[in-house]
Amino acid sequence: MKTLRTLTLMFLFLPALAHAWWNKDWKERTQIVLNTSVAGVETKEAISGFAVPVRLHSGNFDFLSAKNDGSDLRLIAADDKTPLKFWVERYDSINELAVVWVQLPSILPGTDKNIVYAYAGNEQAPADSGNDAATIFDGNTAAVFHFADKDGIATDASGTVKATAVITLDPNGLIGPSARLIGAPIVWPAGDKLRFGPTGPFSLSLWLKPDMAQGTFYRQGSLQLALAAGKFSATLGSITVSGGDIAAARWTQVALSIGAGKITLYLDGVQTGQADLLLSAPSIEGDIKLGEDYRGLIDELEIASTLRSADWIKVTQAAQGADAKLIASKTETPDTVEAESGSQSYFGILFKSLTPDAMAVIGILAIMFMIAVWVMVGKTLFINRTDRANRQFLSRYREAQDLLKLEAADVFRDSSLYRLYQAGLRELTKRNVGHTDKLLSGASIDAVKASIDADLVRESYKLNSQMVLLTIAIAGGPFLGLLGTVVGVMITFAAIAAAGDVNVNAIAPGIAAALLATVAGLGVAIPSLFGYNYLASRIKVISSDMQIFVDEFVTRVAEVHGAP
Q1: Under CATH, which number does the domain 141-305 receive?
Q2: Domain ranges in the chain?
Q3: How far, rounded to the nearest angstrom, does the alpha carbon of residue 236 sit from its chain's CA centroid?
Q4: DSSP readout, 135-159?
Q5: b/e sequence 353-389, b meaning 16+ C-beta within 10 Å
Q6: Maximum Cα–Cα distance across the chain
Q7: What is the mean pLDDT for each group of 10 consecutive residues in the chain (564 residues)?
Q8: How many C-beta atoms lie closer than 10 Å to residue 172's C-beta?
Q9: What DSSP state is assigned to residue 408?
């Protein structure tokens, strides 16, 4: 029966087909995966009614497509049909950061198919009336304090404790702001729903970041949780249980459960101490005092009137901690989802994750690439025409009996050798060579050669024109790409640090997209390098041919028309 129930739950919460989309009016969604397999945070039992904090940032959520106040946000179950209860603790569209708590009907053990979709991107969407903090916690939750109230008043998010307490907030908390304790306690008065029997059931979870690992940080009647020289301990009447070491200036999750004849302590989701309950153990009742003589930060205090399991506490630590392996997320659109139903487009994911600075750099590199291609194609065609015309002219030139009466032809108009020949012929004509029996002196021959050499330099300029654009692409492309990558990585890490979501699936898209700028830079430089070397070798050959031709032409002129 238990197996059948598990299989039924798995069927209900398996992700829908890749082409499914909850509502076409919403243009963007973030897929959130809770991995309870060995690769994530392994659990052995199903967990029901669990509230998960989802950190949204520029790496996994498109704030530009969403409404500025986040009122178009919707949380949908894995079937891509069922709306889920959620509460927005923080939504900052300017800094592109958000924290959304969502209640999951069930988290199945040993699978990466625990999926939630966060939809946005509908400017016409009204605010969701289901966005209520009190509705996202299960019925066994007695009190929850997030310490996220902007007015510095600590309220119970579950709505059980009506009283409030004035607190000092520290903006750099575990999940948004945290309570700053300086030795004076935060007190909530006793209430009927905060009274627990001597044998429970009772559970408590909170996060500490002590300035010094010393002091009592939680007291409720006969129950006391304290630090002494870095040692964590819990005392219930005459029962004291040691629970391991807690370091200063570091976030640590502390959890306690009482029930089934045991009092059990946990640190960071791992059991660190346990003792048997005595029949004479006192009840847990009275005012809640947080931080009697404790200095440091406290966040996410949760009290429950049930015995939370070890897996529940482990998942709580993994979901709320900044270094959690439990939660992975990625941004999707209808087009990308449709594409994934056929073949995976990794470049599509990369382009989707590009930061504006990386897009600007890639745009500049795209222009450089087009210029480089234009130069390489144009220069190749020019060199081919010149080389072909040079061969035709040289063949006619060597067959001519009188080098001063070489017949002109249209096929020679692209020949650099022909233009040099015309330069020499022009100088000889000025000196009436060929029209009279006048012979050239050595100085005159040198003058003719100097004039031809001047045209040789101009032809070399023409051959090498625009080659500097290729050298700019070769040298500048990789540096521009590296600039885009460095800035993109900086922005990605800054966004991740601000959001507190450090799992690899949050970092990977931004880093991979940033590296795309370097790939684009190399994509410009490598073809330009090959094209430059090819064209340079062809130009060198033509330049050598021109130099040889000038020497040969001047030599023949001196031989035929030079003075003895």
Answers
A1: 2.60.120.200
A2: 1-140+322-344, 141-305, 350-564
A3: 47
A4: GSS-TTEEEEE----TTSEE--TTS
A5: bbbebbbebbebbeebbebbeebbeebeebbeebbeb
A6: 138
A7: 41 44 88 89 90 88 88 89 89 88 90 90 81 84 86 82 82 86 87 85 94 91 92 91 91 93 93 88 89 91 93 92 76 65 55 73 90 93 90 82 68 83 82 66 82 88 89 90 85 69 60 81 92 92 89 81 66
A8: 11
A9: P
